[in-house]
């Protein structure tokens, strides 16, 4: 019986991008549905009643929610191709730790960069750069967080590369000047089709955010 | 090779209690080290430089942080008894989902519901009530969140909800009651009746006194900040 895989998502969501990259790495065929988040469809509300958020993976009718949980699910179900987590429990714990760090720190602090101004924005920018530096230190001299290949941590973090331009323009700073190794890592990941075909153009992302700011009444 | 397991924790933290229980369920000997969070040990700062938080598990010198991740590590490393997570990927995803829900939503909404004032508190109370309803629905018809036997979600949620009951007593509120959430309360009683689980809980009176003192200190600090 063929697998039926549907992904409820939004093109600009870094969380959704993680899932798209994981599915592409594993060569899994799926139906992509771009959701209107201002007018949420019945299927989304039925499949994720607790959070009502994307992404949601629907595998043979059963929903899986929360992007990092979906990526781990995809890795466990389609374990024979492009494994994203190592087999050693300690290395797995480390990978999960860093993916959790990205989850807890990058989006929320990044969001402050384009929703605040003045002192609040300045301190958010400093905080954000601090987190990027921590991530850069963890990468060290490895080509990827997974060593020679992309792994769970790479997949979790790389979507934010499409948001870098938005963060930089909002906070008026250069990520490359603070974290050149991290930028090199991002460009390396972009050489993978699974990543380059998933991430939208940074300009498109910035336009989207500007429109959203207008709608939300944020200057 | 002797396995050396250390747990850095604090007696009042539900996150710490989770790990104690997980280790006991696996029949593991470990050294428990009580941390003074106002004066963190070198070992803690070295073992968890990123967050500087407890609990931290140190296994043969290797540190693991973040309680849910520690639980997964314990489950994957010692598979011989009392599995915490199911084997099937869908069951594992569901377990991770509910544990994350407790940690990232329920706990923080509950803090606001018990501690805030005015409209923010009203909104939080409503949200907290909705969250507890979701948990009640998820548990209905099952012995435990884990099914026939208690597992990952039960361990993750039990200590948090017990902690919230302590906070509730301190604040003299009635947001979580047996009348409103009979399934959750029956489940909590069942777990309290389990010797191994109950052995990981601090004495109730001590816990209440501690949370009361911390709330008083937090409220005093907040009013000083306002006055400044």
Estimated share of beta-strand residues of chain B: 5-15%
Tally of alpha and pi helices of chain A: 11
Low-confidence spans of chain B: none
Estimated structural class of chain A: alpha+beta
**Gyration radius over CA of chain A:** 17 Å
Strands across the major sheet of chain B, in which order?
Answer: 2-1-3-4
Spatial strand arrangement across the major sheet of chain A:
2-1-3-4
Question: What oligomeric state is this?
Answer: heterodimer
Helix content of chain B: 55-70%
User: Can you tell me the overall shape of chain B?
Assistant: globular
- What is the H/E string of chain B? EHEHEEHHHHHHH
Largest interface: A-B, 22 and 21 residues
Radius of gyration of chain B: 18 Å
Overall pLDDT of chain A: 96
Q: How would you sum up the major sheet of chain A?
A: 4 strands, mixed
| Low-pLDDT residue spans of chain A | none
Give a concise summary:
Chain B: Keywords: Transferase. Chain A is an alpha+beta fold.
Give a verbal description of the structure.
The complex is a heterodimer of chains A (219) and B (228). By secondary structure, chain A is of the alpha+beta class. Chain A is built from eleven helices and four strands. A four-stranded mixed β-sheet of chain A has the order 2-1-3-4, with helices on one face. In chain A, helix 4 (89-115) runs parallel beside helix 7. Chain B has 228 residues and is an alpha+beta fold. Chain B has nine helices and four strands, in the order βαβαββααααααα. Chain B has helices at residues 14-25, 42-47, 67-77, 89-115, 118-139, 152-171, 182-192, 195-198, 204-227; strands spanning 5-9, 31-34, 56-59, 62-65. A four-stranded mixed β-sheet of chain B has the order 2-1-3-4, covered by helices on one side. Chain B is globular. The termini of chain B are far apart. The model of chain B has no long low-confidence stretch (mean pLDDT 96). At the A-B interface, strand 4, helix 3 and helix 4 of A face strand 4, helix 3 and helix 4 of B.
């Amino acid at each position: 019986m063929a697998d039926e895989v549907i992904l409820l998502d939004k093109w600009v969501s870094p969380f959704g991008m993680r899932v798209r990259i994981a599915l592409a790495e594993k060569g899994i065929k799926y139906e992509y549905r771009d959701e209107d988040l201002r007018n949420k469809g019945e299927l989304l509300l039925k499949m994720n009643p607790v959070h009502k958020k994307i992404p949601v993976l629907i595998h043979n009718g059963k929903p899986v929610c929360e992007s990092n949980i979906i990526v781990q699910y995809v890795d466990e179900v389609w374990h024979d191709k492009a494994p994203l987590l190592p087999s050693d429990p300690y290395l797995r714990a480390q990978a999960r730790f860093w993916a959790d760090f990205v989850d807890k720190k990058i989006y929320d602090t990044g969001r402050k960069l384009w929703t605040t101004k003045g002192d609040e924005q300045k301190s958010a920018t400093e905080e954000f750069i601090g987190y990027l530096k921590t991530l850069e230190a963890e990468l060290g001299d490895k080509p990827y967080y997974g060593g020679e290949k992309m792994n769970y941590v790479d997949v979790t973090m790389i979507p934010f590369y499409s948001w870098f331009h938005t963060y930089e323009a909002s906070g008026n700073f250069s990520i490359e000047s603070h974290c050149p190794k991290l930028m090199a890592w991002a460009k390396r990941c972009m050489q993978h089709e699974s990543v380059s075909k998933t991430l939208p153009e940074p300009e498109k992302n910035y336009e989207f955010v500007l429109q959203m700011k207008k709608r939300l009444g944020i200057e | 090779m002797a396995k050396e397991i250390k747990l850095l924790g604090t007696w009042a933290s539900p996150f710490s209690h989770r790990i104690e229980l997980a280790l006991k369920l696996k029949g593991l000997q470990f050294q428990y080290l009580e941390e003074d969070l106002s004066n963190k040990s070198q070992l803690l700062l070295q073992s968890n430089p990123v967050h500087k938080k407890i609990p931290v598990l140190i296994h043969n010198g290797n540190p693991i942080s973040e309680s849910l991740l520690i639980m997964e590590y314990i489950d994957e490393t010692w598979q011989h008894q009392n599995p915490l997570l199911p084997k099937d990927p869908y069951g594992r995803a569901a377990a991770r989902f509910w544990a994350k829900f407790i940690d990232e939503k329920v706990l923080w909404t509950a803090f606001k519901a018990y501690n805030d004032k005015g409209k923010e508190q009203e909104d939080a109370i409503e949200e907290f009530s909705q969250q507890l309803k979701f948990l009640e629905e998820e548990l209905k018809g099952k012995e435990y969140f884990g099914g026939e036997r208690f597992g990952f979600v039960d361990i993750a949620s039990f200590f948090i909800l017990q902690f919230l009951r302590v906070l509730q007593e301190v604040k003299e509120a009635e947001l979580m009651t047996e009348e409103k959430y009979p399934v959750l309360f029956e489940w909590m009683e069942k777990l309290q009746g389990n010797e191994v689980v109950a052995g990981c809980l601090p004495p109730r009176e001590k816990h209440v006194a501690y949370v009361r003192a911390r709330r008083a200190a937090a409220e005093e600090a907040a009013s000083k900040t306002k006055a400044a």
